[in-house]
């Protein structure tokens, strides 16, 4: 089951569909919010959840290892639609997959995150992203 919503940023509306969960894993909401900001290309909001020395690798590209990593890893164009199929969390690890639609087409994604600790407020220390353009 998914929960649809509409997010807007600067007058741009993006329909968002996130999976529902049992509510026992707070990190699922954090990942859902983070990937929504990723799809909106909101690097400032993303940076709030990244450590200062984050390592972010996008498959097929060089890695970024600083606060600019958020901008480096964002989709190349603003998304109109985000659908997240799954969000999985366990300890310091989390992953999610889905797709975004934009004027330039559909991009399927998978993100794998390692948080700095198991604390609910821990930031993302490492990220790996896999993208496939349809």
Gist?
This protein is an alpha/beta fold and 134 residues long. The chain is built from three helices and seven strands; from the N terminus they run ββααβαββββ. Helices cover 18% and strands 51% of the residues.
Describe the structure.
The chain is α/β, with parallel strands linked by helices and 134 residues long. The protein contains three helices and seven strands. The chain has helices at residues 26-39, 43-47, 69-73; strands at residues 2-9, 12-19, 50-58, 79-90, 93-102, 105-115, 124-133. It is globular. The protein starts with a strand and ends with a strand. The relative contact order is 0.20. The model has no long low-confidence stretch (mean pLDDT 87).
What keyword list fits this structure?
18% helix, 7-stranded mixed β-sheet, 134 residues, single chain, alpha/beta
């Amino acid at each position: 089951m998914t929960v649809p919503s509409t997010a807007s940023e600067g007058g741009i509306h993006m329909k968002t569909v996130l999976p529902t969960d049992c509510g026992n894993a707070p990190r699922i909401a954090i990942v859902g919010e983070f990937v929504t900001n990723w799809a909106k290309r909101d690097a400032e909001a993303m940076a709030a959840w990244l450590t200062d020395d984050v390592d972010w690798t996008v498959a097929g590209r060089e890695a970024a290892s600083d606060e600019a990593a958020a901008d480096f890893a964002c989709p190349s164009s603003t998304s109109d639609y985000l659908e997240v199929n799954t969000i999985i969390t366990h300890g310091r690890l989390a992953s999610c997959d889905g797709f975004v639609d934009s004027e330039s087409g559909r991009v399927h994604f998978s993100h794998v995150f390692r948080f700095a600790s198991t604390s609910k407020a821990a930031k993302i220390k490492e990220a790996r992203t896999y993208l496939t353009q349809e």
